[in-house]
Write a structure and sequence with these properties.
The complex is a heterodimer of chains A (319) and B (270).
Chain A: H1 2-25, E1 38-41, H2 62-77, E2 115-117, H3 128-141, E3 176-182, E4 185-190, E5 195-199, E6 216-222, E7 225-231, E8 247-256, E9 259-267, E10 276-284, H4 299-318
Antiparallel strand pairs in A: 1-3, 1-10, 2-10, 3-4, 4-5, 6-7, 7-8, 8-9, 9-10
Chain B: H1 2-19, E1 37-41, H2 84-95, H3 97-100, H4 113-116, E2 121-125, E3 129-134, E4 139-145, E5 159-165, E6 168-174, E7 194-203, E8 206-214, E9 223-231, H5 245-253
Parallel strand pairs in B: 4-5
Antiparallel strand pairs in B: 1-2, 1-9, 2-3, 3-4, 5-6, 6-7, 7-8, 8-9
Classes of the chains: A alpha+beta (319), B alpha+beta (270).
Amino acid sequence: MKHRNSLILAGLAAAIAPLCAQAQREARTAWGDPDLTGAYSEFTTAPLERDAKYADKEFLAREEYEEFAKNRVEQRFGDDETEPGTQADVHYSMAQFQLSENEGVHSLNLRTSIVTQPKNGRIPPLTAEATARQAERAAVRRGKEFDGPEMRSLTERCIIWSSTQAPILPRGYNSNLQIFQSPGYVVIQGEMGDPRIIPTDGRKLPDKLLPQWNGTSVGRWDGDTLVVETAGFHPESAWRNASENMRVTERIKRVDEDTLEYAFTVTDPKTWAEPWGGVYPLTKLDGLLYEYACTEGNYGMANILSGARTAERGAAAKQ
Amino acid sequence: MTRILIAALALLTAAAAQAQVRTDLPRATNGKPDLSGVWQAINTAHWNLEPHVSEYPVVLELGAQFAVPPGPGVVVGGEIPYLPEARAERDKHFQNRLIDDPEGKCYIGGVPRSTYMPYPFQILQSERDVVIYYQFATAFRRIFVDGKEEAPLDSWMGWSNGHWDGNTFVVDVTGLNGLTWLDRAGNYASGSAHITERYTPLGPNHMQYEATIEDPTVFSRPWTIRMPLYRIVDENFRVLEFKCEPYAEEKIYGHLRKPGTEPPAGAPSR
């Protein structure tokens, strides 16, 4: 009899499971905000920009997708397969350390590119002003790339990461984030970067902002969508050659239990003649994100500089 | 005399009120005290947890504005109960503090040091998680509420499980890597340390912070630090970024710089 009871209960549990899933999907926080919390992978099969051959074709047909996704993963991670003992084999192998996202989860994304605005799925060209700015920045470093730590990239210096700063875009590895919520706040923490503490308590972005490497963000709820406005970037943040006037609008909403939709628009007339933006899914991860102590373990910086010094001494000895 | 009496009376009343159920504390949606907000310690614990008189700055040229200010200390009982060889190690740290203090390298401060560094930190609280964002080195930590998550590996901020004991949020911290110090005087604990933090609101704008440190490899018995934390009530206050990496680069990598080149003056350029 006991057995029978548990069987009935099990059957009942199975029957109500889909209802529970439905309820969970619409779950809200205890204080009534849409619940976006969790850990997510930013990896998606869509490249940032669309291959020109697709022109204005935004979506793949279902039967085209498998081939597309396979090529995409190979294109990004295929060079991990190299001949041991060759120079080509001396590289950072994502698969070796289980860092590549193709080993992780990702949602079905039939899009041909992350960029959806403009219609051709490609980032608009830099303005003449931005091109000049880019050239100026490059000139400061030319021939001095290994002189000192300040000549290295902001990422090598553990200052900012494109996978964590607004707008959030997937990188080569560790492109994961977690979202926390508390009354009046949403926290977006990229695995490798700084947590963005985003107030959703109704405050507006002040007109005058102190420059911050990650900018300053405020959020609001537009129905079930979190809308985040970010401005006040450090002039050297220069995301994709942007100026400090860049403004980013992000729209994040839950699609289903395992997926958020992340959309963004970038506006910076000094850099791009028109605003541009895109959309891609964030896929729920089973598990947690762990501390990424970048500076504390930055042996790479020391090795890059000491390698350059060794090379210089070698060159001097040859003369 | 009257003033002292009134002050003593006020303290007694405060202590009595603390023992009772507080009705004047901000509460979260689940009825627990709401610790959300930006907080900071206002003391000299970041210089030295133990009682200390004023001291020369670590580099004489820094002058009086960077001299070590005096403080009564925050260790309950006054002195940290080091084992003899551990005390010698602490003294060695102090001698080498200019080079060796992890703070100077912009390293994550760890627990409990991040709490009383002279920078603000923000607590964000929900039923499931309490997360804390510390300004220095943009350190971040997640505290699992009513969970028993085991530390999977050692880290700078360790692994935190929290629960409510009445009005007190008690946080159990393990999995610390032992690479940080506890202050600028070289006090330290090892990676075996087990830290129990207690956050007790005393009113809407201040709370008592306690951390008990158990580490038989370094100390002869568990010991406790205790200090109030103050809410930052400035209008529209936000914890601004303090990306300290650029300021530590010359210290860490200067010896690897190309001979004849100069570190950047002022803002970093690229």
